[in-house]
Amino acid sequence: MTLFTGAGTAIVTPFINGEVDYSSLSQLIDWQIEQEIDALIFCGTTGEASTLNDKEHIDTVQFAVRKVAGRVPVIGGAGSNDTHHAIEMSQALEAVGVDGLLMVTPYYNKCTQRGLIAHYTAIADQVDIPMILYSVPGRTGVNISPLAVEALHNHPNIVGIKEASGNIAQVVEIAKYVDEEFALYSGNDEMVVPLLSVGGLGVISTVANIIPKDVHRMVIRYLKGDTEGSARMQLSMKSLIDAIFCEVNPIPIKAALHLMGKVEKEYRLPLCEPAPESLALIEKEMKAYGLL
């Protein structure tokens, strides 16, 4: 049931003149696959899902499924702070052919861990495809505790967790539940190798939007035993990663893709263009890395 091993890109949603830019998205998909990416994740945090209406969200994922055409797994973000809405979106994405779902913790209402377990169980019970939990408490205000993972990891449709708490002690605790049917993925680009060291299978990455081949190779090197080489790659990316998170994601990564000529630098409010000093930092670190 494992959806992928290696690097999955949490891909941006390009816009042009206020609409989804399917032409740029098509080119991004082909380029990512050419660059050896292992999976593609659409309409998550980096994909600006919070500003897409339901039709745009479903249409974008459906386009991606058709464009990818089975070359790599396609995972669709379907999380919501309303369990009923999350079930509806999950079933809609299942209907358009995704290989799996990424399910962020319910934001704003800040449920208890008991409510969180009930939320995820209710969604998983209503679909027939694999689901990856997504813990990013800095965004949502809700953390997936190790006790919640213990309660959820044996559900047949819950096959992993994207862990983006930044709390390595929690990651180690959650790693106790990793097995052939439950995978651990890093949700922090700067912590991939540490997470692999406790049994992780890979990363769902933002920086892979601009360096997919390097992120893929960093993970595969580690999994094949070249831990020192993988660690060197992780360290070499650190300054670039810091620049890509100098403002709230996905503002910097979309600006970086624009500098590479791959997308328009267009956002939906309340997201906006990066400050001039942020853009200067992004450009500086991209040049230092050899991207420009």
Q: Would you kindly provide a written description of the structure presented here, covering whatever features stand out?
A:
- The protein has 292 residues and is α/β, with parallel strands linked by helices.
- It has one domain (6-226): TIM Barrel (Alpha-Beta Barrel), CATH 3.20.20.
- It has twelve helices and ten strands.
- An eight-stranded parallel barrel has the order 1-4-5-6-7-8-9-10, surrounded by four helices. The chain has a two-stranded antiparallel ribbon with strand order 2-3.
- Helix 9 (212-223) packs antiparallel against helix 10 (227-244).
- It is globular, with a radius of gyration of 18 Å.
**Rounded Rg:** 18 Å
User: Would you tell me which CATH topology applies?
Assistant: TIM Barrel
Segments where pLDDT lies below 50 for 5+ residues?
none
**The named CATH superfamily:** Aldolase class I
How much strand content do the residues show?
5-15%
The neighbouring-strand order within the major sheet is 1-4-5-6-7-8-9-10
Biggest sheet layout = 8 strands, parallel, barrel
Number of strands: 10
How many domains would you count in the coordinates?
1
SS element count, helices: 12
Give the rounded overall mean pLDDT.
Answer: 97
Sheet/helix structural class: alpha/beta
Top CATH class: Alpha Beta
Through-space gap between termini? 39 Å
